[in-house]
Design goal:
binds coenzyme A, 29% strand, Aminopeptidase, seven-stranded mixed beta sheet, globular, alpha+beta
């Protein structure tokens, strides 16, 4: 263990360099729901681009952010110290979900709002979520998947140390064609080696 006390470690647990992960606030919902229903974002992360009723998309974020089980965690991502935003701006949402007690694989889903993309927020929030998953949720593996055409996401995930584990062929249909789903993962041992405390 490092030299920090338990309390110091916990104080920094949800804080990155550019972002903080915090609990969902009611005022986050219109923006998160709007991003979820934005077809330009949906094509990158959903099986369909069809908007869903606002109350349904808001309910998704409420469910994903409940944090009432040890198998999942979900947070609003807010900025701190970024050049393009005010501190405390809502920039996205992130979840780690689906952990079962034996295999302990946490699956991450992340969405950064369009005007905040490409400024380091996604990478920073993912590093924080890796810490939460491995150091606080007891994950054995963190997994991610993305469509093969989502090059920004793939480049980022690989740069953080995720390893490509395989691909599900023709998993999704967008723009008149089928696309593969790329599955990536990081084991706890790989996390400790790369980000060790
Ligand atoms: C994919 C996604 C999560 C990535 O988050 P992001 O905040 O846009 O990504 P980052 O800015 O952290 O990193 C992406 C790029 O910005 C660069 N970057 C990192 N820090 C930066 C900084 N401080 N300033 C400028 N650029 C920076 C990274 O090096 C990377 O560069 P690259 O394009 O050469 O790889 C985000 O774009 C997103 O939510 N997209 C839409 C939905 C989606 O695709 N979700 C994932 C589905 S699996």
């Amino acid at each position: 263990m490092a030299t920090t006390t338990m309390q110091e470690w916990a104080d920094g647990l949800y804080k990155g360099e550019l972002t903080v992960l915090r609990g969902l606030l009611p005022e986050d919902l219109p923006e998160l729901s709007g991003w979820w229903n934005d077809s330009g974002l949906a094509v990158l992360q959903r099986y369909t681009t069809s908007p869903i009723p606002t109350e349904d998309s808001e309910e998704l974020f409420r469910q994903w952010s409940k944090n009432d089980t040890m198998r999942a965690a979900g947070f609003s991502i807010v900025s701190q110290g970024g050049e393009m935003s005010q501190d405390g701006d809502l920039v996205g949402h992130i979840t780690a979900w689906g952990m079962d007690p034996r295999v302990r694989t946490a699956r991450i889903a992340i969405m950064i709002g369009p005007r905040y993309q490409g400024q380091g927020y996604g990478g920073d929030a993912l590093r924080v979520m890796l810490r939460v998953a491995f150091e606080e949720m007891a994950a054995h593996k963190v997994a991610l998947d993305t469509w093969s055409f989502n090059e920004r996401a793939l480049r980022l995930y690989r740069s953080l140390g995720f390893v490509e584990e395989g691909r599900e062929r023709d998993a999704v249909f967008h723009r008149s064609g089928f696309h593969d789903k790329i599955v990536l993962g990081m084991l706890e041992s790989e996390y400790r080696e790369r980000y060790g405390d």
